[in-house]
């Protein structure tokens, strides 16, 4: 089991609701990073890991994140650009700070979200077991995005089939998920953000695998000065940040 010292923020600020375009979303990201930078200075940890959630719109990425960090399930509106949460956990005797980035699945944000693959030690690819196209898009879109944009050669990938609480509506079998994961060298789990089945296990297995990968530990060590919260948003410029 993971033990928590949870720190999380509610997913939708009033600012979120007003963001309708990728440009507005960029400004939103900058604001959120400033807030997260404050949190990072408060806590001690052995490793800081950057995790990324990707997959089609509506598969439940934000719901998984909210379920994991806040034990809450809600009917969420689509993510605008990129969102993130911080979670402190202890796994394998190590104190970990997880910065979990939740990307919008909608295609119009793809250029914006692609830069967030940089430096991620773990990438969670999510599909909806009741919507087959979200599974076929894994190979058509998401695996290609990882190949293009992930900068960590040893980055651990986790395939997640979400919404197993709707088993009667399932259009993707568990075996298909296992086969895909084997072919693409991913970990695999089926879960439900709604019932919380396997939600903790998903993050725990991913993080344990990262801990077993020495090259990723060098990247994620708290001794490394690189601050992943200060990652520049794509195409960010002075005018954007000064607007904020
Ligand atoms: N039944 C069920 N519904 C879920 C589950 N996870 C998410 N949902 C619902 O699916 C819808 C989409 O969930 P989101 O978490 O917003 O999906 P997303 O992948 O973040 O979507 P984008 O932000 O557009 O990329 C919401 O109505 C959720 O309530 C689940 O495990 N079971």
Automatic annotation (TrEMBL):
Gene3D superfamilies: P-loop containing nucleotide triphosphate hydrolases. It comes from the Eukaryota. PROSITE patterns: RAB, RAS, RHO. Keywords: Cell membrane, GTP-binding, Lipoprotein, Membrane, Nucleotide-binding, Prenylation, Protein transport, Transport. The keyword GTP-binding applies. Transmembrane segments: none annotated. One of its GO terms (cellular component) is plasma membrane. Pfam families: Ras. CDD domains: Rab18 (cd01863). It is found in: Cell membrane. The keyword Cell membrane applies. One of its GO terms (molecular function) is GTP binding. GO terms for biological process: protein transport. It is a lipid-anchor. Belongs to the small GTPase superfamily. Rab family. Intracellular vesicle trafficking and protein transport. This is Ras-related protein RABC1.
């Amino acid at each position: 089991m993971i033990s928590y010292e949870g720190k999380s923020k509610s997913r939708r600020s009033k600012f979120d609701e007003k963001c309708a375009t990728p440009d507005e979303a960029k400004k939103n990201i900058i604001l959120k990073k400033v807030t997260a930078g404050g949190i990072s200075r408060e806590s001690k940890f052995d490793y800081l890991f950057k995790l990324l959630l990707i997959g089609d719109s509506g598969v439940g990425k934000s719901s998984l994140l909210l379920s994991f960090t806040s034990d809450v399930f809600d009917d969420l509106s689509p993510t605008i650009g990129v969102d993130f949460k911080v979670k402190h956990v202890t796994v394998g005797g190590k104190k970990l700070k997880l910065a979990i980035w939740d990307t919008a699945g909608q295609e119009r944000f793809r250029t914006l979200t692609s830069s967030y693959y940089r430096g991620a030690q773990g990438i969670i690819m999510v599909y909806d077991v009741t919507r087959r196209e979200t599974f076929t898009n894994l190979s058509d879109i998401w695996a290609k995005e990882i190949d293009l944009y992930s900068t960590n050669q040893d980055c651990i990938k986790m395939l997640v089939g979400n919404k197993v609480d709707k088993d009667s509506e399932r259009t993707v079998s568990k075996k298909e998920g296992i086969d895909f994961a084997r072919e693409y060298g991913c970990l695999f789990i089926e879960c439900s953000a709604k019932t919380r089945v396997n939600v903790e296990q998903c993050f725990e297995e991913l993080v344990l695998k990262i801990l077993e990968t020495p090259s990723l530990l060098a990247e994620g060590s708290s001794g490394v000065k690189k601050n992943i919260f200060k990652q520049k948003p794509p195409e960010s410029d002075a005018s954007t940040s000064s607007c904020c």
